[in-house]
Amino acid sequence: MKIKALKTTRGSIVVSLMMLSACMTGRDDHLYVDGHCITCLNNPITGVAYHYSKSSPDYQQAKKYQRKWQTHEDQQLPYQTDNVRFSVKQPVDQVYLKLKREFGFYTRKERERSFGQNKAWLANADEFRYEAISGVSYHMREYTQHRYQNNKHELTLDALLESNGSGTNIVFTYWIQHPQSTLPDYGKSIKTRALRALR
């Protein structure tokens, strides 16, 4: 599946920022952006900053540039995809309302309002889907955010909700570009978040 679209503007901004920044490798073989070291921030074992104290303004600035650089690097990676399946003993309409709010899904009318004159573009957007049959099933897809291992990631998330009579069958399919994400564990974290929202 070819993923494109809703993140294009955001991704272009990040890439443009990186191109405008002065990137260089110092004599210590660390990468610097605008004079700030972004690869020497933390000891990978202790988590302690190498060159900065946490009270130093440079510490926070280095963290900012490190996050910017990681976002830029992630956008160069191929997409990985997987899914997680489970069922809950709640009616599908109730599950829909809770998960829509939790994960930031939109109805088609909501998306069309947010896109204004560009709403026709949604017809060919791989990163958006909304199909609803009240009391039977809901199918939603959105480019959204999810926190995994204490870091917030952007991803394309698809949710299929189907009534099974006594409850709801749920399938989350996700596309991510993060190198440190183990797909099954990432899926478990989405399931955990969903179940927490359905309490």
Provide a descriptive summary of the structure in words.
There is one protein chain. The chain is of the alpha+beta class and 199 residues long. It has five helices and eight strands, in the order αβββαβααββββα. The strands form two sheets. A five-stranded antiparallel β-sheet has the order 4-8-7-6-5. Strands 1-2-3 form a three-stranded antiparallel β-sheet, with helices on one face. α1 (8-20) crosses α2.
Q: Can you summarize the main beta sheet?
A: 5 strands, antiparallel
Q: Secondary-structure element sequence? A: HEEEHEHHEEEEH
| CATH fold category name of the largest domain | Alpha-D-Glucose-1,6-Bisphosphate, Chain A, domain 4
Total DSSP helices: 5
Q: How far is the N terminus from the C terminus?
A: 33 Å
Q: Hey, roughly how much beta strand do the residues contain? A: 25-35%
Q: What order do the strands of the largest sheet run in, or round the barrel if closed?
A: 4-8-7-6-5
Q: Which structural class is indicated by helix and strand composition?
A: alpha+beta
Level of helix content?
25-40%
Under CATH at level 1, the class of the largest domain stands as Alpha Beta
Number of domains: 2
* Shape designation: globular
- The total count of strands amounts to 8
For the record, the CATH architecture of the largest domain stands as 2-Layer Sandwich
The chain-level mean pLDDT equals 75
Low-confidence region ranges: 1-28, 43-50
